[in-house]
């Protein structure tokens, strides 16, 4: 927003803003409604901030959703990905706004109901160095972990109030008869609050005296007395003889819009009828402001007028209908946010439920998890639901790595026998959660059942997905022939229905398979085919994963320099979208390359940077993996105490996560230490290292478990190319890893 040409005074506050802007990365501008906070901040921007291209402004309200803000601010890619905990999201966004040195303004912050805004501030306040966030609020912001937020408090204009009133008088011939002494009475009476001065002068311009206006001030008391008095002034204007019934009706209907509007919305409320003359009348009465091609109502005035709108529901429904006409092929989260707000205020929950059923998958794909969750929760609490909500809840939980919660929702969805697509999808996704957390054998029956069910009901997409997943199970068991057969079967179906996303996924699975079989030319063919599809879809996350897979493929061939190029290309892409988990994964892969190149110092730097990222975003899987890599690093260097320390920490995390195969893998690594130094010395060393662990880790790891014979692996494992836990010196897949995948 641009500052008003009538802006007056505030020199001390402007200087305070300048000092805070130069000294702090997070601060607030606070003041009651009508003190001119937005105008003040706009003036500060004009005077102090030279590069205005770095500014992001959210004119927020109660329905403002944090994920929608991220999307409209231009950082929507940070929302996407296979796994996005809140910390991962906040960390990625923080990095992106730091990179761009953004200056973010959140207006009407006191109205925000989405707690993600406050949680992000609590997180970002620890890290911001180059970007700045300014809150514009009526009350002190309450942010967990921040006890002394710098605040610039705005009150009335004090001695500058009369100067402001004289400027206002000169701007409109209607005010020319108002004498300076009456202006002074008003300015003193309303304690210099700009909005109250404006309303008072409008009434004086139509014949009311200053004494008639200020005689009512003693009726109000307390901190908000001027705000409450402004409400009375508003009602005087609203009920004035010069305000027509049509203007009143029009203005009250306008109050359902909580953001600035371009006028088409207002015209739609009247079925396209020309009502511009009503708009002009309301602008003249200071009830609506025309600015930069848009119309808006002062937040305080809007709250007053919305109270007076008696039959709100039909107006909200009409507003929702207008925004529904603006829908395009690509779902706009900000537009859906508006539609949801108006439909929910109209209590049209059935229409909302239908919309969620239609657009829910697209919102998940765009990473709008919190927005979708908010929509569904409100509907469920109002007694409206749809079976597919269980799938959506499960998908949200799965992306946030809440696996038990995801399984619970998928299990509920599978009970809806009348919806065949839903039932098939829920069975598959239940199995996929089991697979992801390492329960590979347990996942297989779900995929087999899903294939039978999908085939008998003509569900080609679900059938191909389940067949592809069966291929993954065989792949995990090193049954390459069966895996290849299933992948090709799935690919044939996916091509027949033009499931591009599924085709790309199967291509990558085939690439991994042929790379492990050392059929490198064929593997690269599949990798490039998958990469091409993802590039055409401009799916940055999938492109990044493709590049990692190609890098691992090149590493297997000993092409370390080419592999590094792919990892660094992926890393650059990940940094552009703020995906900390993929960045960490890439750093781990680069560390492995450096180990292969006998550059242990560089490997160690990458592992340590990976740990730093994992701790920042709370990624236990990534942290456990990096700890395991460090354990292998120190084992190679025969620094056995450090090696054991990291293996113990990794094992503890994998036990917490419930990843059985990774636990077995680490037991194999620890067995190597025992074989190398002997059982007696190992028992002594393991006891010493165990005693130095944190108390909670010691409780989770029973030291005696490490002194028995190595555990027999009861299922396929992830580290097939690692040394076998039995100490034979062979790779695991060529020793105890030969397990049938049927």
Mean pLDDT across the residues is 88
Percentage of β-strand residues? under 5%
| H/I helix tally | 35
Would you count the extended β strands for me?
7
What best-fitting shape do the alpha-carbon axes yield? elongated
Distance between the termini: 65 Å
Helix content: 55-70%
Low-confidence stretches: 710-719, 723-742
What gyration radius follows from the Cα positions, in whole Å?
32 Å
Kindly name the structural category: mainly alpha
Q: Order of strands across the widest beta sheet?
A: 2-3-4-1-5
Major beta sheet summary: 5 strands, parallel
Please provide a written account of the structure.
The structure is a single chain. By secondary structure, the protein is mainly α. The protein starts with 10 loop residues before the first helix and ends in a 42-residue tail after the last helix. Mean pLDDT is 88; it is low at 710-719 and 723-742.
What attributes characterize this protein structure?
4% strand, mainly alpha, five-stranded parallel sheet, single chain, 742 residues, 7 strands, two-stranded antiparallel ribbon, 63% helix
Topology:
Elements (H helix, E strand, L loop, with lengths): L10 H13 L2 E5 L6 H12 L6 E5 L6 H10 L10 H14 L3 E5 L8 H9 L7 E6 L13 E3 L7 H10 L9 H10 L4 H12 L4 H5 L10 H14 L6 H10 L9 H6 L6 H9 L4 E3 L2 E3 L2 H10 L3 H14 L7 H13 L3 H17 L3 H13 L6 H12 L3 H11 L6 H17 L3 H17 L3 H17 L3 H17 L3 H17 L3 H17 L3 H17 L3 H18 L2 H17 L3 H18 L2 H17 L3 H18 L2 H18 L1 H14 L2 H6 L42
Parallel strand pairs: 1-4, 1-5, 2-3, 3-4
Antiparallel strand pairs: 6-7
């Amino acid at each position: 927003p641009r500052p008003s040409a009538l802006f007056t005074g505030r020199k001390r506050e402007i200087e305070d803003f300048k000092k805070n802007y130069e000294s702090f990365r997070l601060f607030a501008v606070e003041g009651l409604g009508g003190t001119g906070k937005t105008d003040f901040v706009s003036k500060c921007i004009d005077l102090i901030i030279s590069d205005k291209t770095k500014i992001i402004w959210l004119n927020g309200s109660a329905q403002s959703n944090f994920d929608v803000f991220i999307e409209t601010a231009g950082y929507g890619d940070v929302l996407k990905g296979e796994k996005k905990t809140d910390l991962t999201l906040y960390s990625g966004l923080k990095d992106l706004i730091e990179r761009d040195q953004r200056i973010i303004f959140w207006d009407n912050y006191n109205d925000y109901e989405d707690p993600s805004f406050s949680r992000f501030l609590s997180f970002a306040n620890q890290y911001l160095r180059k970007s700045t966030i300014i809150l514009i609020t009526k009350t002190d912001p309450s942010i967990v972990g921040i006890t002394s937020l710098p605040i610039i408090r705005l009150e009335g204009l004090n001695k500058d109030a009369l100067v402001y009133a004289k400027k206002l008088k000169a701007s409109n011939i209607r005010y020319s008869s108002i004498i300076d002494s009456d202006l002074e009475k008003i300015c003193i009476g309303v304690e210099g609050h700009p909005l109250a001065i404006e309303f008072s002068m409008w009434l004086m311009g139509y014949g009311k005296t200053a004494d008639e206006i200020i005689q009512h001030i003693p009726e109000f008391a307390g901190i908000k007395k001027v705000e409450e008095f402004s409400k009375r002034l508003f009602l005087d204007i609203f009920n004035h003889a010069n305000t027509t019934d049509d203007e009143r009706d029009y203005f009250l209907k306008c109050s359902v819009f909580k953001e600035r509007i371009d006028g088409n919305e207002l015209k739609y409320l009247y079925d396209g009828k020309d009502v511009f003359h009503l708009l002009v009348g309301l602008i003249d009465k200071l009830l609506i402001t025309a600015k930069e091609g848009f119309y808006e109502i002062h937040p305080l005035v809007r709250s007053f007028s919305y109270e007076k709108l008696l039959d709100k529901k039909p107006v909200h429904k009409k507003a929702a209908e207008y925004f529904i006409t603006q829908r395009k092929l690509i779902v706009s989260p900000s537009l859906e946010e508006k539609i949801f707000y108006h439909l929910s205020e109209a209590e049209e929950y059935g229409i909302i439920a239908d919309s969620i059923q239609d657009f829910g998958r697209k919102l998940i794909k765009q990473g709008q998890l919190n927005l979708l969750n908010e929509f569904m929760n409100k509907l469920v609490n109002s007694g409206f639901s749809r079976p597919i909500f269980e799938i959506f809840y499960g998908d949200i939980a799965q992306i946030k790595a809440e696996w038990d919660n995801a399984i619970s929702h998928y299990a509920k969805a599978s009970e809806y026998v009348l919806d065949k697509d839903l039932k098939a999808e829920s069975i598959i996704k239940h199995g996929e959660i089991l697979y992801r957390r390492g329960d590979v054998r347990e996942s297989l029956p779900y995929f087999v059942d899903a294939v039978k069910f999908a085939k008998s009901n003509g569900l080609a997409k679900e059938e191909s997905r389940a067949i592809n997943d069966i291929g993954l199970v065989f792949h995990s068991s090193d049954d390459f022939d069966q895996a290849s057969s299933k992948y090709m079967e799935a690919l044939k179906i996916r091509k027949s229905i033009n499931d591009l996303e599924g085709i790309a996924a199967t291509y990558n699975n085939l690439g991994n398979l042929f790379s492990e079989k050392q059929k490198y030319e064929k593997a690269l063919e599949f990798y490039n085919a998958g990469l091409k599809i993802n590039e055409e879809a401009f799916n940055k996350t999938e492109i990044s994963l493709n590049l990692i897979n190609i890098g691992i493929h090149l590493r297997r061939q000993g092409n370390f320099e080419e592999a590094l190029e792919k990892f660094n290309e992926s890393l650059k892409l990940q940094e552009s979208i703020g995906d900390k988990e993929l960045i960490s994964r890439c750093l781990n892969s680069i560390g492995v390359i450096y180990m292969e190149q006998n550059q242990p110092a560089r490997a160690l730097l990458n592992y340590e940077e990976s740990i730093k990222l994992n701790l920042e975003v709370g990624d236990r899987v990534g942290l456990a993996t990096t700890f395991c890599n460090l354990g292998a690093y120190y084992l190679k260097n025969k620094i056995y105490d450090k090696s054991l320390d990291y293996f113990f920490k990794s094992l503890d995390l994998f036990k917490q996560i419930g990843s059985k195969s990774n636990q077995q893998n680490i037991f194999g690594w620890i067995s190597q230490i025992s074989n190398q130094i002997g059982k007696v010395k190992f028992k002594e060393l393991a006891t010493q290292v165990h005693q130095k662990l944190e108390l909670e880790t010691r409780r989770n790891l029973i030291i005696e478990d490490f002194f028995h014979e190595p555990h027999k692996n009861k299922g396929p494992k992830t580290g097939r190319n690692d040394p076998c836990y039995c100490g034979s010196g062979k790779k695991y897949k060529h020793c105890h890893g030969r397990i049938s995948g049927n």
